[in-house]
């Protein structure tokens, strides 16, 4: 923000620059005098806690008081400038009006500007106030963070009594100017100007009662049409221990002032709830912020306002990581014995190293058991090296004996209706060809061929022919014996039943033999079975 403020300041008229808040001086004061003695800083081991707190609070009393003294000077200077500019704008308007019927009207308009030019100057003043108000709120948050003292909220309440927060004069002036520019009188309730810098992003925005007037602006007017005119967006977040009351408090205020809800997000930890709403203000009234603050105090909640920059608005959802050039993925981690804290820590470190953002975590395993499975919705940089990432995921999985499945989070993942299972060592715990080989007395030979195939020394088809050849002459009754000995994997019945209730079609595919695949199909209630046919 300091760099942004400096860039914007350089574009201001020379006469305006000295009235900007001195953000760098305030920031430097916090760094030198507040931060080293703030309550969040580590305590000296040689002092008792009471002595440490007493010493710090004593120093902070002077350092923080000095900070607010500096800030007060900046705010007073800003107020004086604002009043002076309002007076100058009002005088220009009145001189224009008084000369409208005189012979020198053209000369007066040339001297004091057209209505459109004057309206643009009003908007410039609003932008200037908004820029400084943003700087004030940000430096207050910085002081709160480093001092450990939450003083920003009462200071902001103090600002509501200052002229730049609610200016009836400027509101009236802007209303009359828009009437002249649009050629359409505004309704008595259609006061247009944002009466607080937190109400605007630097553009004039209009209440619903004045939308028609904006669409009738002359062709080529600098005023945008109503369909594309920006209205200020604000992210309102309330956190507290009263659950649904928090949600109700936010929505009650939003509904009372007819604000449009663009998006919302909710997080609950037992009684504690954090509820955020991205809203578009429907009018220029600042009373909604007073009501929200009163509701937060009533429910022992923390209230935050975040005025949105149109350039930084989220593309789709508040739950999306606000970064560009990203792809959405879902990672599912699973361990039947429970996910260990060591695994979750290593998993998170891997994501951080690859600059992958976690957008959402959802528990998949039953609540009454161990934490065995989690879905992570991820925001992955497009330039990530996926070959390297796969190798890291495989190593992580092997080291912690935990499955990690990464797949694109797209419509194809969400719309699957068919689930296909392998049979051996998946739905069942054995390898059926090994079980048959035990009864045929050739289990050692079959195991050696299987190992050669696994090592890539022979292909699958050759290994299958060789193993089946060793089983030649084995009694067909062996298949019935093997069926009786099959052990289904824990959870296989529950999983298949749950998927069927959800409407999925289920299939089993095996490199073994069809009689055993059909047995598994019927036992688990699957829809399809595919395997090798064997001559009996």
Automatic annotation (TrEMBL):
GO MF annotation, one: magnesium ion binding
Q: Which PROSITE patterns match?
A: SPX (PS51382)
Q: Quick one: which pathway?
A: Amino-acid biosynthesis; L-serine biosynthesis; L-serine from 3-phospho-D-glycerate: step 3/3
Report the InterPro entries cross-referenced here.
HAD-like_SerB (IPR050582), HAD-like_sf (IPR036412), HAD_sf (IPR023214), PSP (IPR004469), SPX_dom (IPR004331)
Q: What region holds the SPX domain?
A: 1-157
Superkingdom assignment = Eukaryota
Cofactor(s) for this UniProt protein: Mg(2+)
One GO BP on record is:
L-serine biosynthetic process
Its EC number is 3.1.3.3
**Which Gene3D superfamilies would you find in this protein's record?**
3.30.70.260, HAD superfamily/HAD-like (3.40.50.1000), Phosphoserine phosphatase, domain 2 (1.10.150.210)
Q: Name one GO cellular component term.
A: cytoplasm
The catalytic residues are: 422 (nucleophile), 424 (proton donor)
Q: Which family does it belong to?
A: Belongs to the HAD-like hydrolase superfamily. SerB family.
Entry-linked NCBIfam families: HAD-SF-IB, serB
The protein here is known as: phosphoserine phosphatase
Q: Which organism is it from?
A: Blyttiomyces helicus
